[in-house]
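COMPLEX REQUEST
Ligand: S-adenosylmethionine
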Amino acid sequence: MIYRTDTYWEDRYNQEGIKTPVSKNVHPQDKYDEKIGNDCKIINDSLEPLFKATSVDLAIDCGCGCGRLTPVLFRYGKKIKGFDISPKAISLADGFVGYFSKPVEFICSPLTSIPLEDGISGLSLSWTVLQHISDPDEWKKAIDEIQRVVKVNGVILTYDNVEWNLNRMKNPEVKVPEHMSIKSANDYLFAFDRCDCLHQKMYNKHVLTVLRKVK
Ligand SMILES: C[S@@+](CC[C@H](N)C(=O)[O-])C[C@H]1O[C@@H](n2cnc3c(N)ncnc32)[C@H](O)[C@@H]1O
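STATUS: Structure written out below.
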């Protein structure tokens, strides 16, 4: 069996539920809440200086999972859309919509074909998502889709593990070589070829990359 994002994530959300995106040692509620706070702080530290008091019409959460971090976009977008390949994750995310203070829509879709028109979003977030797209062509296609739906001058934020050869597959029958291993932070700078890099910063094994679309 080959690692496939469509089945792997669906299975995990069905088994582990809403806390699937974080490792099991962070599942206790206090640790889970603290992790969300830490992740949001990294995002806000990067985005607040760029947006100050302004907001965009549409901010998107690409690979939103169950909407764990989607609310961080409320202060940057008038409307929010989240996309994820897992129907189960989207159904869990939908459970929050009634509690949100902003219009949010969660849509089940692979990032290789985001159901949005060109240049419609002023801000895209993808948090530990691209690192999980194992096929290099699919990985680049997802990046090109994000670049397509973000408008010129829009901002793209990605955060991914770059040092760790992801080895989540405990089943020995599952082969992992197909799993994408991003070798360096520079991979993102080359792949986001319609963007300028605003800044890049390492957080332990992860790289945060903030880009502005220029063409
Ligand atoms: C580690 S989780 C992160 C979820 C969310 N960003 C968060 O931080 O809570 C990775 C997510 O990427 C989604 N994903 C993986 N490959 C995808 C693809 N090709 N298209 C859309 N979503 C994908 C998975 O379903 C999963 O929800």
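REMARKS: The chain has five helices and seven strands. Residues 85 and 109 are 5 Å apart (CA to CA).
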